[in-house]
Amino acid sequence: MLPNKKYATLISVNTAFVLAVIKLIGGAATGSVSVLASAVDSILDVGSSTVNYFAIKQSEQPPDNDHRYGHAKFESLASLIQAGVITLSGLYILYEAYVRFESGRAVKSIEGGIWVMLFSLVVTFMLVILLRKVAKKENSSILKTESLHYEIDLLTGGGVLLGLVLVKVTGINAIDPFISVLIALKTVYSALALGKEVSEDLVDKALDEDELVKIRGVLDAYSCVIVGWHKLRTRKAGAEKFADLHVQVNRHLSVEDAHMIADMIENDISETLNGADVQIHIEPCESKCTHKICALCDTEIKNEINRLKNK
């Protein structure tokens, strides 16, 4: 059974702590700048995963008087912070690589560094698999970010391991910091792309086009009982999605029937978007409507409403 997203983040914190200690010891013993850079990255992982844990705890709190829409944006905020942390770790790796190029120091114990990185890669790979599964199950942006973070760690760890092997085979110590530079550039690029993605949640960017198509599909299915719709607005906060729109109905419908139609559309859109919060404002059709014959329209719609009631 998969853990929930809060416990998955706790697993990340503990895993990152263990890896940070092992890499620090291994980096100090081997003198490898790439292993030490990986250790620093793991230390930052501990901090960012801890922030994520508390962000998830906060985001799960129910709405209150000060946060009527809930606390889901804490997830997006934590993801943005994590993107910043990843960027800093990439810049630090660049700095360490520069220092190593300048000093020309050799790696003292290549074999030790190789074993440290092999162990780290196996553990990180298992963590990435877990985070991916939980992120998919919970539809959590913060766990997707967390998973991406450790996927980058997997890439950087693989690069470090490759660099150490090449140093051992060729005897060229400059390979170690060179690999670190490539890893750092990839890390910074991924972090900036991630920051752009999560910032879109914070500024209420509309849902993706494929999700908007799903909403339109639901509305089309109710075309027999509604006259039209407009003013569709969508946004996302963490794992939660929101949509609101205006729906026009026959002006002669009872309040009860109009409300029933709104409820049914809200429920169907919510189900289509995996539990989205949907709000519909009902409007009467215009007196000069395209249906032209109100009596015929009344009859058709009321027959369809009765069919829906008896489903």
Blueprint of the fold:
Blueprint (H helix, E strand, L loop, with lengths): L4 H26 L2 H27 L13 H31 L6 H29 L2 H30 L4 H28 L6 H13 L6 E10 L2 E10 L5 H18 L4 E8 L9 H16 L2
Parallel strand pairs: 2-3
Antiparallel strand pairs: 1-2
* Count of individual domains: 2
The fold-level CATH name of the largest domain is Alpha-lytic protease prodomain-like
CATH classification, class level of the largest domain? Mainly Alpha
Strand content: 5-15%
Q: How many helix segments?
A: 9
What does it look like?
This protein has nine helices and three strands, in the order αααααααββαβα. With 311 residues, it is mainly alpha-helical. It folds into two domains: 5-202, Alpha-lytic protease prodomain-like (Up-down Bundle), CATH 1.20.1510.10; 209-309, Alpha-Beta Plaits (2-Layer Sandwich), CATH 3.30.70. Strands 1-2-3 form a three-stranded mixed beta sheet. α8 (255-272) links the parallel β2 (240-249) and β3. The longest helix has 31 residues, at 73-103. The model has no long low-confidence stretch (mean pLDDT 81).
